[in-house]
Structures
1.
Amino acid sequence: MKNVPHPLIIGNWKMNPQSVSLSTKLAKDIKTYLTKKYSAEIVIAPPSIYLEGVKKIANGTRLFKIGAQNVHSEKLGAYTGEISLPMLRDVGVTYVILGHSERREMGETDLHINHKIHATLKAGIVPILCIGEKIRDDGGSHFTHIEQQMRNGLKDISRAKLENVVIAYEPVWAIGTGNNASPEDIHEMCLFIEKVLSDMYGRNYASKVRIIYGGSVSEKNAKDIFTRAPIDGFLVGGASLHPREFVHIIKAVST
Ligand code: PGA
């Protein structure tokens, strides 16, 4: 783990749950289980339509922040179905997940993601750049793939802005499968990501970037992964929909 103040835990609710009242219940239940202030920085990323409600539940407690699962790079205009950074900022969003593999699958390219990262940083919101290989082979093509996603996604991002970027290593084969990457594989990939960042920005700048892991993180594997791989936190999908389990994961990384 790097010299960062607190581990970062993000709950990515994806397109869940199915109603406003269920989203309110979920956020309230998480709050109930968070019986004290943990040393982790906690972010909940619900569907955008629930952001305001979840924020209201968080308000006053400072137990968790809210994040978005995507954003458009333009500030306003004729972009049917999209949501802008000023809108997100207005409801109190401080983190945005970008380039999630499920969005890449829908056609989002490295170029889109790069534009979104530039715009997000400019808006003073923290982008979480998701990268991850679909498959691994003995030839190590996953490293080439990761490097490409990093170089394209971070194109023209300045050294000064880099430390506000979070990188989420999420091997696609591990997402939602119950088949997490091993701590050894995550360790190796973290070192590789740091090396690419060092090549791009120099060691001092690279060492400030938070790297988190996502892909079937659960209450069963969180502690083991966190203690054995040099990561700064987790991006949690399925398990973030189960309040007790999500809080267990938070406890696993908290001192
Ligand atoms: P998962 O999802 O924890 O359900 O594997 C992680 C993610 O997609 O961010």
2.
Amino acid sequence: MSEVALLDSVITFLAKPLGSFIDGRPALDEQAGVSEIINPANEQVIARVQDATAVQVDAAVAAASRAFKGSWAQTSPYLRGVLLNKLADAIEQHGEELAQLEALNSGKAINVARGLEVAQSVVFLRYFAGWTTKINGESITPSLPSMAGEQYTAFTRREPVGVVAGIVPWNFPLLIAVWKLGSALATGCTIVLKPSEFSPLSLLRLVELATEVGIPDGAINVVTGAGKVGQWLTEHGEVRKVSFTGSVPTGIAVGAAAMKSKLTRVTLELGGKNPAALLADVNIDDVVPGLVMTAFTHQGQICASPERIYVHRSRIDELEQKLGAALAGLKIGSPLDESVQFGPLANKAHYQKIANYFERMGDGQVVVTGGRTVGDKGYFVEPTLLRASSPDDLFLTEETFGPIVCLLAFDSDEELIELLNDTPYGLGASLWTNDLSKALRMIPRIESGTVWVNMHTFLDPAVPFGGSKSSGIGREFGSAFIEAFTELKSVMIRY
Ligand code: ADP
């Protein structure tokens, strides 16, 4: 199959001078450093993006602050919802353009970029739009005694926390930015987003669309650049909340810096070493497609993807054989080829990390399939399945954030619970079984922000998502985001 033809709008966008987007317009600065944006499929430079300066970060926060107190505060909750829905419509109308930018920039297979990243951005944004008119406090009856006929009443208000810094990783640059800007704008906050230095392009196009649909200047700003820019934002005195998605070590640094700055609120959605468990009754033919999809979509570069799979000893040989065969059959190639299921890793540093893991394989584990880099141009690797013999195997303990899955046999349910919980992390776990009674008894014993049954890594805007233990602080989606993006104000009245 040949590659899809790039749209003229994509070619024009890539050729433009790009950089931060502040107060409704591009903010370019001749003096700024420039980062080359690389297509991970062929290592060619596809765009040049200016890195934000400290002055620009200040300007972005100031613009967000003005919009927070001015234009966005004056936009009624109903109109906020209308505007977020208009942005969702614009994403839908420009879906192919955004999907192509994503495929070019992050190596996401075009079908995944269209059907997951872009389509889900629309779904999530419409969900947040629905919340704008439903953010309420409660009415309270105080217990104070009336001494001379006076009475008391009280109520709470959910007030927007203020300017939010949204720090976005490289794996889902559009969707994760939408989670953050949707939560912020729905609650009445404004936002300064920082995309990853590796994959800023789709967000830079999104913020242009936000201005075109009439979202007021300054409500959504983007500052580009590496970790330093994120650090300036986190430590900025006018930022009231940091919503961060990324790796555990960076998340811990961001959380500490935010606390130290001004007790700035944080939501941290970090990584993990997510387990899936296949109980003895599973039908292996039924679960293999689900495991391939959840563990290997976007080359396994998804924070909640399972990397360790515990399988009842009676079923592990069959799973190993059938999952190995399914992975060996995946088509690896250009993300712009619609028949390709498996593109390159997203950037060189990550490719080198995974190649390094490949070199450490085979000492303690059996390599069932994969374990090699592919070709000499682009960051391609094979989908990889290992089988370990010990629970302390490094492939059952270290997060690779890549397409490497490791199997281990278990014998009893008690042993399985211990294996599932034997990790500092707790983002997502899954049980695969038709014995729902057993699953329901196990769920309370699993230390994890989410437990899926017969599925894994399905994120729904109505279902809260976030990590327990070292996988994070706070929850996104559902009604849980409201708590994270608002302050609760209590009002007491004597009359
Ligand atoms: P990944 O390896 O998934 O990119 P990181 O956690 O390193 O994970 O990066 C996630 C995001 O955090 C990126 O946008 C990155 O530029 C940003 N970042 C990195 N270091 C810092 C820091 N010290 N403070 C704030 N943001 C940072």
3.
Amino acid sequence: MDINAATKNLKQIIEQLQVLNSIHTALSMTIKIEDIYSIILSALISHQGLGFTRSFLFLYNPKRDVFEGRYALGPETEEEAKQLIEEQNKEDDYLNDILKNFETEQNAKSEFSKDNIDKLYSNLRSSAVWIASVQNHGFDNALTRKLNEFAFRANPQEDKNENFINVLLNEKQAMRFNLEKDAHLFQKECGEIFDTNIIAVPLKAKKKIKGIIIADKKFSNSELTYLDLKNLDWFASHSSLAIENSELFNDLENMFNELKEVEKLKNNFLSIISHELRTPLTSVLGFVELIINGKVGAITNQQKELLKRVSKNTMHLIHMVNDLIQLGELEAEGIMDVKLSPVDPLNTLFSVIPRLEQRKRSRKVDVELVFTEAPPKILTDEKSLEKIYYHLLDNALKFSPENDKVLVIFKKMKNELTITIEDHGIGIPKEKLQKIFESFYQVDSSLSRSYEGLGVGLAISRLLLTSTNGQIEVQSEVGEGSKFSLKYPIAE
Ligand code: ADP
């Protein structure tokens, strides 16, 4: 081979490598499995791609344990092949013209006119006629219909009749076959569709064979070469990667949808349970109150004391059920009737503290207010602020050591008021600080945990804050305590 021919050959190989690279990019950007298969088949036979004339895809069907003929791309007859080659040549010429024009115009330092670009796009159906033909006609062509009639047993051990698929699966790489020499490996009808010389290669994903590609150069003067074999091998491994990515993406999407479904079921379940529980609990409380108040006859003091405990615990249950209902509503539709108006943060706090008496007493912890000037009014929703105060103070008291103090510190900064609820209790590990605002999350979620609670107070507070002008921040050190800071705009 002279030096000129060698250089030309090398140039061709480099060009082909560039083409392969762009096919690889196209494959890695595609997620839909059907699109991946069309890129694979088009790339094989594209004039600018791997240079085969026809490509065929067999896909594994696990239900039948066979490889089924699925898609075929390329000319079916000599006539069609000629026509397509003519179209390709026309497009090549056209491209060359445009490029020449472009160079001359560039040399003349004039801008490449918009007209020319428009012409380029309107006349250039596609650099590869084949791709255009996939887009125009899909795989519903005579060749595909013929291929659909083929199915090959997929399990080499069980199948006594040798066929090319078994040989290929044992070798696990691209192989050349000659339908005359290897006639015993092919069904008779194969000769009607494939060329005498073909290359076949398996497609793998997640270590399983997903399909088989066959390519030939029928109706062309070129032979299948060793380079073709290597190219197809390379191409199949990249295609396999694209198929695997697509399957992973599908798995992820399915998992995500299942999770959404489970989340919906959980919410429905909670909402039904909570509503169903509230009615009987309310009536239990009502009847117990009637008895305590002597409305249905006299009771002894001991009976009264015991019934008071029943009443207290029923009340506690009702509060929990109400929290669950509220969380469900907030997560589903957000806060319903927000009334933003100037709210006195101190008065609101005073209205909440009596409800925490029980907790304060059981922990022997007091609440102390800290401010240097009277806290200004803030623009928010009073009912929501009450609930937020309640949940934050309840936690601060619950997680405080006995005989301690919880501080509520008011600090005015420019147009903002910061209200910090500070305790000196068990604290929260840094990596859990964001999680504690998720519904049902508890740092200690074991059944043997020493603190009661449903894990919804902070989730409710955060959801309420988002629609009532507020923000929340948390700082905490394990063993030293926690500070939950609320920030609200000051009402003008
Ligand atoms: P609950 O207190 O009912 O478990 P919350 O949503 O109010 O639910 O709080 C979630 C979790 O955040 C608590 O279980 C606890 O682990 C942690 N936590 C909240 N506030 C404090 C606090 N002041 N000190 C320590 N841990 C806290």
